[in-house]
Amino acid sequence: MYAHEEKLWRQGYKRIAGCDEVGRGPLAGPLVAAAVVLDPDVRIERLADSKTLSAKRRETLAEAIREKARVAVVMIPAHEVDRLNVLAASELAMQRAVEELGDIDHILTDALVLKAIPHPQTALIKGDKRSASIAAASIVAKVERDAYMERLGEKHPAYGFERHKGYPTKEHIRLLEEHGITDEHRRSFAPVRRILEKQMRLDLG
User: Fold this and answer.
1) Is 44 exposed, middle or buried (0-12, 13-18, 19+ CB in 10 A)?
2) In a domain, 205, yes or no
3) Domain range for residue 99?
4) Which residues of the chain have pLDDT under 50?
5) pLDDT in tens, 131-167
6) Using CA atoms, how far apart are residues 159 and 153, in angstroms rounded to an integer?
């Protein structure tokens, strides 16, 4: 997992920011990006793609990453995802996270080039499985987003956000049809848009 970082460290790049985002697919909640700069002299063991880890393991690793690395997290709320589109929101979130870190030599991303940032970049296909710093970013972003959705579940208990995390599960669609949409739902996403259109037709009689 450290091979890409080690190669760049040998080339003289010391401040390498790994970036990743979570939350492209959900119907509700923010898109969350993280950028992480790992210390060349400190190894964080068992880093992996956040999707392959248990929630408990992700939380443990996220704590270790925050203790041993430089970390920035940025959230793009649902209404901004609607305005920008999900790809542009992903790029903007990662860009802001990198900018928050400040002094960076090189950027590693999960397949996406950050066009607004002039630093040297390497876009890795399936980067969260191949790069320690991208994996670390994916873990931090996932833990942050899950915590947000759990808080949202407390605020809107009828929707089950703490269970499905906003993804388009059968339960989520059913609850949307029963209760309507919240301000946290992405109106540009097809299932939400269909429910909105149906409600408008009913309102018009």
Assistant:
1) buried
2) no
3) 3-199
4) none
5) 999 999 999 999 999 999 999 999 999 999 999 999 9
6) 7
